[in-house]
Amino acid sequence: MTSRLVVLISGNGSNLQAILDACKSAELNAQVISVISNKVDAYGLTRAKNADVEAIHFAKLEDETRQEYDKRLVNFVITKQPDYIILAGWMRILTSSFINHFPNKIINLHPALPNTFPGTHAIERAYEAYQKGEIEHTGVMVHLVPDEGVDDGPVLAQQEINFIQNESLEDFETRVHQIEHKLLIKTIKELIKP
Ligand code: GAR
Known about the structure:
seven-stranded mixed sheet; Rossmann fold; binds glycinamide ribonucleotide; alpha/beta; globular; 194 residues
């Protein structure tokens, strides 16, 4: 059966694009039902529209608490009957109001290894740590989201990435993204296989 995916994004959406492409080529037996962004100007919304997929800017209302926002989001996402909810660059911490409704269904991608560089700008922070001689390698991971822990949870897949001497931050970022696109698709494929 074709799996139903809801993808949450906040920005460029290159990982979303990898998912859309893999669905189109049938590498993934899945369909993106809806793409939701908390940011109005997220380019990922354009990517969704270009692929004829529902693209929703889910704006936070004035005076709305995080819990209230998440409850509204739950009510919307439930209507999509997702098999999995993929956080592909969703830069907003979900509260238990959302998480508890979707046990073992929320998958997060993070451009660092488990327990390293949680939060934003992980790629830049890892690059800087390498320049300072603090780390020898970094990586990317895909994990389940069981609670409100930031970029933390049971790891589904991870891949180490070596640094290359004198590589620019820009080139390093490009390399990390290429690796995470592949790891994300491979992990979703494993999850949805019959
Ligand atoms: C990706 O590198 C993803 O791993 C990261 O945001 C980027 C989104 O890129 N997520 C996190 O940092 C989560 N803490 P994209 O919009 O091009 O897919």
